[in-house]
Amino acid sequence: MGLLDEMNQKATAQGIPLSAHLDITWRCNERCVHCYLDHDGKDEMSTDEIKDALRQLADCGTFFLVISGGEPLLRRDCFEILEYARELRFNVKLKTNAVMIGAKEAARLKLLGIEQVQISIYSDRPEIHDAITKLPRSLRRSLEAIRHLTANGVKVSISNVLMKQNAASGKAVQQLAKEMGCEFGIDPIVTPMLNGDWSITNLGISRQELEEVFRTEEFVGHVGEFCAPISTVDDDVLDGYSCSAGHTLAYISPTGDVFPCVQFPMPCGSLREKSFREIWYRSEALTELRSVHVRDLPTCSHCGHAAYCSRCPGLAYMEGNMRGPSSFDCAKSEARTGIPSAWQLSPGYATSKFVQIRLV
Amino acid sequence: MLTSKTYLAKSNDIAARTLGDETIIMSTIDSTIFMLNPTGTVIWDAADGNTPLSRIIEEKVCAEFDVRVEQAAEDAQQFVDELAAHGILVVSEEPISPQ
Question: What's the gap in Å between the CA of B15 and the closest CA on chain A?
Answer without folding.
Answer: 5
